[in-house]
C-alpha cells in the first residue's frame, strides 16, 4: 500500500482509486523524467506594445513522456506541487534558462530577459536565492536577465517567509512579476504585500475584453492602477488584433499571446531574436 511520506517504498495497490493511481504514476514518471532529461523549455516572446520589438520571453516547461508523448504542464505541475517535486523542477528551469541565455550571448544574439515560473512552494522549501545566484554566476549573467513569475497556488498563501525571499531577490536585481492577475487567488490585496515589478493580466480577462464592455473597463483601469504603483503591465493570451489595439490604446506595456507567437523551441526563438521585431 501507499505509505505517505516515504517515497522509496510506495507500491501501487489495486484498491487505490483511479485519481490516486494517476497521481502515483505521474509522480513516479516525473522523478524519472528529471533523470532522463525528458523535460525541455519553450520560449514565448513578450513584445513591446508601442514598438513591436521582443523585449522579453517566458520560459514554459514541456514534458515529452516516453509513452504518452507530450503531457501538458496544466496536468503535471499541480501534481509536482502536491508531491514537492516542483522544487526540483524549479531548480532545473533556473539552471536551464541561465545556460540558455549564456549560449545565446556567446553566439552574439541580442539577448533579452527571460521570465521563469516559480511556485510559491520553492520560496518556502528551498534555497531559491542561492540556486539563482549560483546559476547566474556560473553563466556570468547579470541578475536583470532573470525575472521570476510568481504563480499562484491554493496550497500556499503569502507568508512573511515568501515576502522575505521576494525582498532578497529584489535587492539582488531580479525582477518579480505577479502572474495570472485578476483570477483565482491573485487579488488586489496582494499588491500591498510586496512591490512587484510587473503585473501580468490573466488571459481570461484579456479574451473577454472584446465581448464584454465591463472587462474592457476593468482592464483599462487595472493598467492605470498598476502604473500608479510603478509596475509594468503585461497582457497574456492576446489572440486578436482587436485585443491588441485596445490594449495599446490603454497604455499596456507588453503583449504576450498567440497573435505574435506561440511558445516555441530555442531555434525558432533565436530566429525571432535575430529579426528583432515581430511586426
Ligand atoms: P502561465 O504561467 O499562465 O503561462 C501561460 C500559458 O498560456 C502557457 O500555457 C501558454 O502556452 C499559454 N498561452 C500563451 N499565449 C496564449 C494565447 O494567446 N492563448 C491561449 N489560449 N493560451 C496562451 P502552458 O505552457 O500550457 O502552461 C500552463 C501553465 O503551467 C502556466 O501558466 C504555468 O502556471 C504552468 N507552468 C508552465 N511551465 C512552468 C514551469 O516551468 N514552472 C512552473 N512552476 N509552472 C509552469
Ligand atoms: Ca507565467
Ligand atoms: Ca499567467
Ligand atoms: Ca496560469
TrEMBL record:
Which segments constitute the EAL domain? 23-277
- Name of this protein: PAS domain S-box-containing protein/diguanylate cyclase (GGDEF)-like protein
Organism field: Cytobacillus firmus (Bacillus firmus)
Q: What is the lineage of its organism?
A: Bacteria, Bacillati, Bacillota, Bacilli, Bacillales
